[in-house]
Amino acid sequence: MLLKRLSEHVQLYEDADFAGMTEEAKDLVVRMAKFAFFAYGWMMIIHVGRTTSGHSKDSRHYPGDALDFHWEKDGKVVPLEAQRAVADLFDWTGKGEYPEWNSPGLHRDRRSLGELGQGTSWRLKGGEYLVWGRDPIEKMLELED
To answer: Which of 33, 49, 65, 124 is surrounded by the fewest CB atoms within 10 Å?
Structure first.
């Protein structure tokens, strides 16, 4: 897929809709992309922003509150653990990981908080979604399986 440049620190896959995202989500994306670019020299590559199909029925992509992306530096994909560490500095409530993509990357969204005030985290592994809350011990145990 062809990429188009949004700015000096963000590129979009040809069909990625950044303009259709909510203002709150766009603000988070811009702040996160600028931080990664100026702190580490990373370029954000957005795969999907707002979309109208191809995701679960309650996907936050439909109202424009989600994005799937990865970061690169000097044309190479930044390790997933480093991507996660930077993205976790920002106030996303839904957090996902795609370790098996050709260019391993992340999902971030602005979903409603659960009854305990927690968001949801998940990882796509072997075609299955592993879901956990924000408990880091629970997360480590899930990833070891």
So the answer is: 124
The Cα 59–Cα 71 span in angstroms is 22
Least Cα distance to 106 among 114, 116, 115, 96 occurs for 96
| pTM score | 0.77
24, 32, 47, 62, 76 from 82: Cα distances, Å: 24, 13, 18, 28, 13
Q: What pLDDT score was predicted for residue 53?
A: 65
CA dist., res. 97 & res. 121, Å (int): 8
For residues 78 and 104, the answer to whether their CB atoms sit within 8 Å is no
More confident residue, 63 or 144: 63
Cβ atoms of residues 87 and 40 within 8 Å: no
Q: Which domains does the chain have, with CATH numbers?
A: 3-144 (3.30.1380)
